[in-house]
Amino acid sequence: MRLRVEHITHYQYDSPVRYALQQLKLTPKERPGQQLIHDWRIEIEGGAQQLHYTDHHGNGVDLVAVDGGASELVVRCTGEVELITWDGVIGPHRGAMPLWTFLLPTPLTRAGRGVRSLSAELGRDHASDIERAHALSALILDRLPYRIGVTDAETSAEQALGGEGGVCQDHAHIFIAAMRHLGHPARYVSGYLMMNDRTHQDATHGWAEAHFDHIGWIGFDVSNGHSPDQRYIRVATGLDYRDAAPVRGMRYGAAEENLVVQVQVQQ
User: Fold this and answer.
1) Are 257 and 212 part of one and the same domain?
2) pTM of the model
3) Which of 69, 100, 161, 266 has a CA that sits 20 to 30 A from residue 148's CA?
4) Of 79, 107, 86, nearest to 209 (Cα)?
5) 110, 158 Cβ separation under 8 angstroms
6) 145: number of Cβ within 10 Å
7) Is pLDDT larger for residue 32 or for residue 28?
8) Tens digit of each residue's pLDDT (9 = 90 or more) over 112-169
9) By its UniProt entry, which Pfam families does this protein fall under (predicted)?
10) DSSP H helices in 102-187
11) Residue 133 and residue 222 share a domain
12) Are residues 177 and 100 part of one domain?
C-alpha cells in the first residue's frame, strides 16, 4: 500500500517575532514495514531551514529559523510512503541508544500510584508477556476514554490517568509507564495513520512500542485497540512525546501564537 501525506502546521503571531527556532521531526525513514519513501518534501514560508541532522534516536531532524519580524510561519510537509503488512512487529533493537535506556522514567512517563495500581490489576493469568501487554492496552482504553480537550502536551501519564479522558499521547504515555514498571523497555512513536472514516485530520498520531525478548519491538496503538498495520507511517521515536514531537520550538518576544494543524493521509 502506498500512502500520501500532506501535513500543514500554521503558526500565526499577534505581533512580529524577534527570533524563533522550530525543531521538526517530520521525515520518515525506511524501516521494517516501510520500505520506500517517495518525494518527501518540507517547505517553509516565513522562515528557512538551517540544519538537518540525525538525533540519538535515529530520527531525522530539521531546524527552522523564523524570519525576524515575521507574523506567521507555515510548515508544509508532503510525500508518499510505500508500506507492507507487518502487524506491528518491528523486530530487534537497533541504533545508538542502549536498550536499558528505554526502561528509564521521564517526567511524562513516571509510574506513580495510579500506573502501579493499574499494572497490578493485570494479574498473572496470561499466556505470554505479549498477551499481557494487549490486556494492558485494553484496560487503559477502558479506564481513560478517548476525549479531546481535557489534556495537553505537558500532561503526564499519572495526571491523565486521574482525569476524565485523554488522547493518543496520554494512552501511549500510560502504556509506556506501565510496561517499564513491568520490566519491559518501551518507547513513544509519532507518525501518521490513514483513518477509515476520514481523510482530513487535525493532528498527527502517536502510539507506543514495547520490547520483548526473542522478538524485539512490537507496536501498540492503545487509542484504536490494535497493533499498527500498513495504514501507519512511523516517523520518530523517543522516550516520550517530547523526544518524538513532530514540531517543537522556542521564541523570543511577547508575541502570542495561534496554531492550526491540518493533516491529510490517503491511499
Assistant:
1) no
2) 0.94
3) 266
4) 86
5) yes
6) 11
7) 28
8) 999 999 999 987 777 799 999 999 999 999 999 999 999 999 999 999 999 989 999 9
9) Bact_transglu_N, Transglut_core
10) 113-120, 129-143, 157-161, 168-181
11) yes
12) yes
